Amino acid sequence: MKLFIKLIRNLLGLIIATVDILTRGSKQKRTAEKQQSVEAEAQNMALYQFFACPFCIKTRRAIYKLNLPIEKRSASEGSPFRDELLEGGGRVKVPCLRIEKDGEVEWLYESSEIIRYLEKRFA
Ligand SMILES: N[C@@H](CCC(=O)N[C@@H](CS)C(=O)NCC(=O)O)C(=O)O
Fold this sequence. Notes:
The protein has 123 residues and is an alpha+beta fold. It has helices at 2-23, 32-42, 54-65, 80-89, 111-122; strands at residues 45-49, 71-74, 96-101, 104-109. Strand 1 (45-49), helix 3 (54-65) and strand 2 (71-74) form a beta-alpha-beta unit.
């Protein structure tokens, strides 16, 4: 039964992820100079996520729209990034945005918080 529920969840996630890719529209446009500086800032971030998680899809959609090349790290079972997330952030819950700034590392959980943070910083 547990396996069946997991299968249905993954299937739904896959459908949502596909619909998202087909409907996400255009990316934010910036001058070449501004885009370059945004890309440099994005290098100090990484999104820990599951491919089919609806909260991760929502967050990836916002990242796409904001035109941010943030690295995506799968936190699925067996991935070394899962242990990294647990050690650094304290729990395996996705999405989680790892932000490195001025030598400090912040682990930001909650899709709405992550999107709010990115929109405030980059929109
Ligand atoms: N309110 C959270 C929900 C995140 C969430 O429930 N993520 C699930 C995957 S879809 C998860 O990480 N579950 C693992 C756990 O809670 O231990 C958000 O918006 O980010």
